[in-house]
Amino acid sequence: MVLGPSSSRLVGASSLFVKQVEVRDDKKGVLLYGFPENPELSLEANWSVSNYVSVGSYGRKGYSLWLNKGSSIRLRWDAQTSSEAKYSIEEDDRYYIGIINSNPRSIIMTLSVNVLSKMYDTTKAKTMCSTISGSCRLNLPFPNSQFIVVTTPANGDLGGWYVELSFVARFVAYVAILGFIVIIIYLMWNYFGACDAESHQEEFPFREISETYPLLPEKTFRTPYGTGEEDEESGSSSSSEDLYNGKICVICYDMPRNCFFVPCGHCATCYDCAQRIMEEESKVCPICRRLIHKVRKLIIP
């Protein structure tokens, strides 16, 4: 950071993220102030300096200053002739006073600088530290401090003030922000995961299947067990009609169908015949030849 004599520079430093500000300078005269609010740029400081300046052939020499908006600078230089210029500062920035020698021989001139510098009012500062005894650290009380002001004394030295600022982070705030971001990502992940699950349920609706589904096949299955074409064509036998109508056991042709198989759901035999099937080694449905796990008895009124 470049400053100058009687210079005042504002730096934003939120105490939410910054715990301390450390300042170092070679000339040991910089003051550092902490403010909860933006200080007023209401003070003025006037300083002048006049130096002999030697510039080599085709060489240049210059000085850097920090000036705030509203400041003004007047320059006067005397070489073979005298000249003068005045400038008004329109914005806070670093400004450079440069001398360029375009002659093939060295020149010696007198440079006079007069600066009317706008300064920040530091009377309302909450904290302050000085580099008179060396580098210093300015503590920023949480959560009030938001701005710091760096000022230099009026020593009339155009050599420039080169100040080094370093910031000590408030790690607790960064950890809290990181945790908040992780929570937001987690909630978003759960939200989009739930939306994705709902979309899958809409595409593939769930159908509850119990042990009794299907209780009977959708189409009436007519089996020709124990019947001939003559019985089927004539329709004179009541037992054949009962068999085709799904009433008589397809094994014994005697007892009514009063049970069904799990999991296929076919109702084709009486309970006694179903028990005999379960005692066999194959244990398959006589209709679909599917393996039978259980037999459930029907209560027919």
From TrEMBL:
PROSITE patterns: ZF_RING_2 (PS50089). The chain crosses the membrane at residues 171-192. Gene3D superfamilies: Zinc/RING finger domain, C3HC4 (zinc finger). GO terms for molecular function: ubiquitin protein ligase activity; zinc ion binding. Residues 249-289 form the RING-type domain. GO terms for biological process: protein ubiquitination. Pfam families: APD1-4_M (PF16041), APD1-4_N (PF16040), zf-C3HC4_3 (PF13920). Coiled coil: none annotated. It comes from the Eukaryota. Keywords: Membrane, Metal-binding, Transmembrane, Transmembrane helix, Zinc, Zinc-finger. This is RING-type domain-containing protein. It comes from Escallonia herrerae.
